[in-house]
Design a protein that fits this description.
With 132 residues, the protein is mainly α. Helices cover 47% and strands 0% of the residues.
């Protein structure tokens, strides 16, 4: 378990808690995002998004939770100690029925991020978001 006793913070605990409703997560993130490092790594190098994808990939509220975390500034590309990013966890773990909606959300996030940083066109490999 990752959390405040393992080098993480309260957002790690929220990501681990499968009972956390999306609206409660949103309130928590709005309350603490300026007080803690939302992308802080725990002792294993995991960010809250790593934990969310690894522990709650079957949660019916996953898409809403991802949306709230991304809006709070959590990063999809911060690597853990094994150089695995939350995006790679998403591709490896999240399956239907949540994969399609979550993939659309992540595509919008990536396009927005690329546009903000003056990047060019985004290409997505469809097979990365299928249930093969």
């Amino acid at each position: 378990k990752s959390g405040i006793f393992d080098g993480g913070n309260i957002i790690h605990d929220a990501a681990f808690c499968d009972k956390m409703r999306p609206e409660c997560l949103l309130l928590l993130l709005e309350s603490v995002r300026h007080l803690v490092n939302v992308n802080q790594k725990d002792q294993d190098g995991l960010t809250p998004l790593h934990i969310l994808f690894r522990k709650q990939y079957k949660d019916p509220h996953l898409v809403a939770k991802i949306e709230h975390m991304l809006a709070a500034g959590l990063d999809l590309y911060t690597s853990d100690k094994r150089s695995i990013t939350p995006m790679e966890d998403f591709i490896r773990l999240v399956r239907p029925p949540f994969a399609h909606d979550a993939a659309k959300l992540l595509r919008r996030y990536i396009r927005k991020r690329v546009h903000q940083h003056g990047g060019g066109r985004c290409n997505f490999k469809r097979r990365a978001f299928t249930s093969e």
